[in-house]
Amino acid sequence: IFAMIVLERALATAHDELDIVTTPAGDPVAMVHCNNGASELAAWVSVFQRFADLIGSPRPPDSVYEALFTEALTAAPDAGGILSYNHLSGEPIAGLDEGRPLVIRTPDSQLTLANFVRSQLAGVFATLSLGMRVLDDEGVAVDRMLAHGGVFRTAGVAQRVLAAALDTAVSVERHASEGGAWGIAVLAAYAAARHTGATDASLAAYLDAVAFADAEFATVVPDPADVAGYASYLDSYRAGLAAERAAVTAL
Predict the structure, then answer these.
(1) How far apart are alpha carbons 157 and 66 in whole angstroms?
(2) What is the C-alpha to C-alpha distance for residues 188 and 43, in angstroms, rounded to an integer?
(3) pLDDT tens-place string over residues 57-102
(4) 32 with 17: CB under 8 angstroms?
(5) Most buried one in 157, 189, 209, 228, CB count within 10 A?
(6) Pairing of strands 28-33, 82-85
(7) Which residue from 130, 134, 137, 144 is spatially nearest to 6, judged by alpha carbons?
(8) Pairing relation of β-strands 170-173 and 145-147?
(9) Sign of the CA dihedral 195, 196, 202, 208?
(10) Which helix (H) or strand (E) holds 173?
(11) What dihedral angle (degrees, nearest 10) is formed by the CA atoms of 9, 37, 154, 178?
């Protein structure tokens, strides 16, 4: 998982958590790049899908995702004290050379299906959120995030958690679940149009006039209760990284 923030000014200092790259048009971008994403979440979804098979109620993957994600909307904003670490591999932003997927909870946490799934979703975005807080400390204000990827196939759920994690409005376009493949196709179409002389527009102008001319965006603004809950989750998540490091050492 990663975030790319187009910058209006240079950052004050270099940060290990950030890569400075450019858009295809050459605009400077701060990139928060995480090695882990939704793979651990997908593994848990497959567990629940298998359970549905065993009780004689088989469901396709999209149906299982929708059921679990919808249930997560009823969870406590801080996931009831359950922490989920999605680290299948090392994660430099979190100071990890290797990863060990973990679910950790205290004895007084609230273990429900809703909280468990909410914790998994929160964990998908946790390392990203740590990196984005570096930008916040730099005084970089994010107006809106455009999100894409398969985790957004169930409308409004992962999007709501991400909005809380970043305390920023998150917009999802109807092709968002296609992820990077759609973006590469747009760039290919632009390159072909330039090559054939069908357009002499800049990439930015082409995107506005053609690629996004009829785009349908659904935008979720952060809910204050969700933002406060995610902040509490992230504080515990950051503290619990000590357990993650111990697991890497021991296992």
Answers:
(1) 9
(2) 33
(3) 999 999 999 999 999 999 999 999 999 999 999 999 999 999 999 9
(4) yes
(5) 157
(6) unpaired
(7) 144
(8) parallel
(9) negative
(10) strand 170-173
(11) 70
